Amino acid sequence: MRRPMLSYDAAGLFDVEAGLPSNFDASWSKRCQAAVEALQQRTSSGELGFLKLPEQNLGQLMTWAEGRQAEGWTDQIVVGIGGSSLGTRAVLEAMGPAWIPAIRTHFAENLDPVSLEATLRRVDLASTLLVVVTKSGTTIETMSQLWILYDAMVRQLGQVQADRQVIAITDPERGALRALARERDWETHAVPPNVGGRFSVLTAVSLVPLALAGYDVEALLRGAALIVRQGTRDLVGLAHISAQHIALYEKGFGQMVMMAYADRLGGLVDWFRQLWAESLGKARDRSGQLVNVGITPIKAMGAVDQHSQVQLYMEGPNDKQLLFVETASHPVGFQVPESPAMPEGLRHLQGRGIDEILRAEARGTRAALSRAQRPTALWRLESTGAPAVGGFLMSWMAITALAGELLNIDAFDQPGVELGKIIAHGLLGHPKHGQFLDDLESTPSESHFSRWPAD
């Protein structure tokens, strides 16, 4: 029997005292069907585009990437943050690291001057492409670092050559970056207007830098397509997974730990964390009623966090849903060698592969959590090749969108992050965003300050 590309085991959500009842699927059936119909309607109308992304023909992109590779570029710096970089990083880490990348990839994400300096030291700007990703062109972190890197290129290579090395991935018509790209004649790739940033991993946002790095982006889309190829039938199954998490949330399990049992799966957890938090953490539902909903996503790494977080998960508040993520195969392997010096209590490890040991640790941890009446589930990728990774990405985008429908909230906006951006612009001197500065600059009460050493 052919092994599945991706599998999901939810038994641990049911087999605990406070978990889901045996009639769960039947009780949520109508709501799940309605959620699927609502998502399909929004997709058919053109409002939402992420479900249709696997239908893209990437022939032109692959030809372009091969042409750019042939020009001899050694590195690319992807300048973006959040949905503009997390998906790219997740795929690069999961599918690789590419043992011999066509073009080495670096990221300029957070505004950390030490990290930016380290990136500049690692590359030769004369053979480096600058790939800037922002749909709006007004992302403060991205545009600040773009201008620093571009200025460094201009000073070293001249503006004509620097302009040849910039690739802008942005809105097809509007925005500050699109206007700048037109002015400077930068090469551009478009992000579909109906695909939001955190749902954009299967657009040019990630496909362009991944293709430049030599990754099999066509197989990534094939894997994503397998998740939704049967339309309503597949989406109803994913809606029931959304419903499982919402039902547990309603029982008081308001935190979701995703624990990856392979270092290279950590980027996928980071990507999931943004997708889930920004999509489902909302103050109001679609009717405007104050609801303040959201399941808090938490990242954990197995087996490392068995030694730091699992004690809390086992014996602390029983308010967490725990999702294990593992891969069934690894591209390389090591075995514990036989040695007479091996302590007697560890001799059973001799000849065991470290992948086998890791799987045993995952199974043991999950079993222990279940015994402690903690709800668990398991996602298993057949490998971390492109199809399985693409399938995982599409699964969680659909699960998240369907969760929004079940919660009656808009999973595709993020009003909660806008105010912080406005205040930051005001602090930096933006003429239209200074209205909050009086409150910020007032002197706080000394009773709320601590200093070391004391005065």
TrEMBL record:
One of its GO terms (biological process) is glucose 6-phosphate metabolic process. It comes from Lujinxingia litoralis. Pfam families: PGI. One of its GO terms (cellular component) is cytosol. Its EC number is 5.3.1.9. GO terms for molecular function: carbohydrate derivative binding; glucose-6-phosphate isomerase activity; monosaccharide binding. Belongs to the GPI family. It catalyses: alpha-D-glucose 6-phosphate = beta-D-fructose 6-phosphate. This is Glucose-6-phosphate isomerase. CDD domains: SIS_PGI_1, SIS_PGI_2. InterPro entries: G6P_Isomerase, G6P_Isomerase_C, Phosphoglucose_isomerase_CS, SIS_dom_sf, SIS_PGI_1, SIS_PGI_2.
